[in-house]
Amino acid sequence: MAYAVKEIFKTLQGEGAHAGRTAVFCRFSGCNLWSGREQDRASAQCSFCDTDFVGVDGTGGGRFADAELLAQTIADEWAGSNESRYVVLTGGEPLLQVDAPLVDALHRHGFEIGVETNGTRPAPEGIDWICVSPKGENELVLRSGNELKLVFPQVGAPPERFEDLEFEHFFLQPMDCAEAGQCLDDTIHYCLENPRWRLSLQSHKLVGIR
């Protein structure tokens, strides 16, 4: 299988349970809930995305003919000690493209594999860390994993809808929007009243890194 990748870059994970951890991010092109075009945002199934996942023209992006080529490119981006190698497969929606050959190739290169997904597509076996971020009323196919990270507040996605799912961690992340301050206040209040949920901040934005 060939892969379309928007960008590949090394940074610190900014969100959730692995916040602060060094990782290579591999952002796949395309999503099943929004085209990525601004003219389609208002009618999209997910209209608040803050990520550019259109095309293959980002740093390190391109079209990769096979899993080994993509895995080698990710390994080259790590460019350091082989210790604690971690890759985050994200998007767009990475599970439109991530498959068993890519998982196997990344493991051969010594990577622990995380995926950040909207949960509407099945995941191949062998992914080490599954983070599901539900979007609106869209039905989840992935109903278990390591981390559920809900952008809050969302129409059609109240936290109580997800509390019976089988995840190790439950995070609320304030929506980054024109009313970001109010969203933060509401998220803090909800976590205080419902301590199963933990606050997740986009720390990479706070410190000015990707």
Please explain how this structure is put together.
There is one protein chain. Helix 1 (67-78) runs parallel beside helix 2. Strands 3-1-2-4-5-6-7-8-9 form a nine-stranded mixed β-sheet. It has helices at 67-78, 100-108, 180-193, 203-207; strands at 3-12, 22-28, 62-64, 86-90, 112-117, 129-132, 144-152, 166-174, 198-199. The chain has 210 residues and is an alpha/beta fold. The chain has a single domain, classed as Alpha-Beta Barrel (TIM Barrel). The mean pLDDT is 96.
Short note summarizing the structure:
With 210 residues, the chain is α/β, with parallel strands linked by helices. It has 4 helices and 9 strands.
CATH class: Alpha Beta
Oligomer: single chain
* CATH level-4 homologous superfamily: Aldolase class I
Order of helices and strands: EEEHEHEEEEHEH
For the largest beta-sheet, the strand count, sense and barrel status come to:
9 strands, mixed
Distance between the termini: 28 Å
User: Mean pLDDT, as a whole number?
Assistant: 96
The overall number of domains is 1
Strand content: 25-35%
Strand order of the largest sheet: 3-1-2-4-5-6-7-8-9
Return the CATH architecture: Alpha-Beta Barrel
Radius of gyration: 17 Å
- The outline comes out as globular
- Low-confidence stretches at least 5 residues in length (pLDDT < 50)? none
Helix content: 10-25%
Structural class comes to alpha/beta
CATH topology: TIM Barrel
Tally of DSSP helical segments: 4
Number of strands: 9
